[in-house]
Design brief:
Blueprint: E1 2-13, E2 16-28, E3 32-37, H1 44-51, E4 59-64, E5 67-68, H2 74-84, E6 85-88, H3 100-105, H4 116-132, H5 148-159, E7 166-170, H6 178-195, E8 198-202, E9 214-219, E10 222-224
Parallel strand pairs: 3-8, 3-9, 6-7, 7-8
Antiparallel strand pairs: 1-2, 1-4, 4-5, 9-10
Helix pairs in contact: 4-5, 5-6
Bound molecules: adenosine-5'-diphosphate and magnesium ion (MG).
């Protein structure tokens, strides 16, 4: 579960500050996708960055599985991020020299001690996830050999590598056509149910919203009525 409790986030703007997120609260439960929508500049990515514990809010709390992130040391927060949060950013930051499979297994090399057993488990999980996102045939391909939609699938699989309880996804369809975009949304809905993640999905594309379990809309950083 993830709970955002009265989150306010400001950025410096000349002599003043701009309020990117203004007193936003929301909760996402396991097995559900909460859509976050709103016009460009309304604070969607800022809110997601706070949820991802990448930016500390001015006010408010992020609670992941009953752990209040603001009470953690930076090191504990980094561990929580690695173990419990899966993050898919807007731009797919895959490593050009690695195959699809290696993009996933490299996650296993981060932080935790290595062992042969861990490595073979990571390889199995990578293959299962690539299978789940429909890329079983493309494991050995590098990013330049994959389409935009396929790269986005690798991104999603990679975010799930550590079996996170929370999945955070920012505009996954922005670089895709309508049909490929819809199939990425399908995939996120399906994986959320299969893996029981609490998912926050930012999209400004209204056609996808009816399929989500809940939708919130931001306007000028604030929660607004669904238009
Ligand atoms: P959205 O994702 O909905 O398009 P953002 O969260 O990116 O909106 O931006 C919300 C507001 O915060 C905008 O006014 C934007 O200019 C501002 N903003 C976002 N990131 C920063 C930053 N790192 N520094 C200063 N202002 C920022
Ligand atoms: Mg954004």
């Amino acid at each position: 579960m993830i709970r955002l409790d009265h989150i306010t986030l400001t950025f410096p703007d000349g002599d003043t500050r701009v309020t990117a997120v203004d007193d936003v609260s929301l909760t996402a439960r396991p097995g559900t996708v909460t859509g976050i929508t709103g016009p460009s500049g309304s604070g969607k990515s800022s809110l997601l960055a706070v949820a991802a514990t990448l930016i500390r809010p001015d006010r408010g709390h992020v609670v992941v599985d009953d752990v209040d992130v603001s009470r953690l040391t930076p090191r504990e927060a980094a561990e929580l991020r690695r173990d419990r949060l899966g993050i898919v950013f807007q731009q797919s930051n895959l490593i050009p020299s690695l195959t699809a499979r290696e993009q996933l297994t490299v996650m296993n090399e981060l932080g935790a001690p290595r062992s042969r057993r861990r490595r073979s488990r990571a390889a199995e999980r990578a293959d299962a996830l690539l299978d789940a996102v429909g890329l079983a045939e493309h494991r050995e391909k590098r990013p330049h050999q994959l389409s935009g939609g396929q790269r986005q699938r690798v991104n999603i699989a990679r975010a799930l590598m550590n079996d996170p309880s929370v999945l955070l996804v920012d505009e996954p369809t922005s670089a895709l056509d309508q049909e490929r975009g819809a199939s990425i949304i399908d995939l996120i809905l399906q994986l959320t149910e299969q893996l029981n993640t609490s998912t926050l999905l930012v999209t400004h594309d209204l056609v996808h919203l009816p399929r989500m379990h809940a939708v919130v809309r931001l306007v000028d950083g604030r929660l607004a009525e669904i238009a």
